[in-house]
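Session log. Operator J.P. requested a structure for one protein chain; no other inputs attached. Running the standard single-chain path with token output.
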Amino acid sequence: MNLEPFIITVAVAILFLMLCNLYRVVAGPTVIDRMLGMNVIGTKTTVLIVLIGIINGRVDLFIDITLAYALLNFITTIAAARFYQRLAQPAPPDPKKSLAAPSAGPEATQGHGHEAGSDPVREEAP
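Structure written below.
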């Protein structure tokens, strides 16, 4: 029984689904949607590579290519997620700003003639 027409039909269906995901990559409202769309396209590409291997009768060769592509897809997704996670984090506080608590009030952050080495938050008793 010849399965080649069925495999080609499945491959064309997967290509159509990849085009649907390409729309999500281009028009995605957020970066996460775009990353997810690219990850799904990469996963479907690995399936297509295996289907090409089945059609050519060299699945053993194409499995190696598929594993390398899947690993590259995974590493790229993790790297992009880490990059956007660090991009979304707030900047670290400026060390030159006052160490006074926000509830201490404005008089704690203003200098009242303190010496250079004294603590601006604590008032020392004479």
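Operator note: The chain has a mean pLDDT of 82.
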